[in-house]
Design brief:
single chain, mainly alpha, two-stranded parallel sheet, 69% helix, 2% strand, globular
């Protein structure tokens, strides 16, 4: 199954409106993340400390008080998802569901789950090798893992954070962006490479290695979306990858501290 073709927009005013819309959406979401990541990488590269000797932390505590820590982390996830709601609203048309338009529905749960699991395996194993290789070459910073036993709600929040990342990246950077760029007349590979470059860019805060790893992931996910017309398996795969990174990576660091550069 290939994705449904979007009609080319030829009206000049409508094309301008779409471009403005895309800029606003990305400026409110992952485009801003990409800019901050680029600045973060420049800051790291201009430090006297080599890039490979630096670190970055994921899912850090927001307060020393437990109830505030939970509240801040939950609200960060909750309000981040409004960007996803926004693009779904922008893709909605009377009589045309935005969920079905980008293949984010439950019409084929078994096939989507199977495809998501396969993609997660295909990306996950080389991803570990790429991270370790980047650490060895000094082009990837050490990722500091959040402790899993801080509070009873730590793991549920980490799983929600993984869901937030999966939804935000796949719905916005694939489902929404592909739709709009097709309407503007971009060809398939220009869209795939443009989306993949954006995906790599907002991971630059982790170093140069993760940029190329996420670029490759973006190319694969973009090709799959063009082939299948569905974001659901991409969301499933992304959630599995991030859930494993957030929950299993701290255990890997604990068990193999030398290997994972802790």
């Amino acid at each position: 199954m290939t994705r449904e073709r979007e009609l080319l927009v030829t009206d000049r005013a409508e094309r301008r409106r779409i471009w403005i819309e895309v800029v606003i959406v990305l400026g409110l979401s992952l485009g801003a993340s990409a800019v901050y990541s680029i600045v973060s990488l420049v800051a790291k590269l201009t430090k006297p400390v080599p890039l490979g000797d630096q670190s970055t932390a994921l899912n850090t505590s927001q307060s020393t008080r437990e109830w505030l820590d939970f509240t801040y982390q939950f609200l960060n996830i909750f309000f981040a998802l409004f960007a996803v709601a926004l693009v779904l609203y922008l893709l909605w048309r009377p009589g045309r569901s935005p969920f079905r338009r980008i293949g984010f529905d439950l019409s084929r749960p078994g096939r989507d789950l199977g495809a998501g699991l396969a993609l997660a395996a295909l990306i996950g194993i080389p991803g570990i090798a790429l991270y370790l290789g980047g650490r060895a070459l000094g082009i990837t910073v050490a990722v500091s893992a959040s402790p899993l036993d801080t509070f009873w709600w730590t793991i549920p929040i980490l799983l929600l954070s993984a869901a937030n990342a999966a939804l935000s990246e796949e719905i916005i950077v694939v489902g929404y962006l592909f739709t709009r760029l097709h309407q503007l007349g971009w060809n398939r590979w220009a869209i795939i490479l443009g989306s993949a470059t954006l995906r790599g860019s907002y991971h630059l805060y982790q170093g140069i290695g993760p940029f190329f790893g996420n670029l490759a992931m973006g190319v694969l996910f973009g090709w799959c979306y063009e082939k299948w017309g569905r974001t659901m398996p991409l969301v499933v795969a992304h959630w599995i990858l991030d859930a494993a990174s957030f929950v299993l990576y701290p255990l890997a660091v604990l068990w193999f501290p030398t290997l994972f550069g802790a």
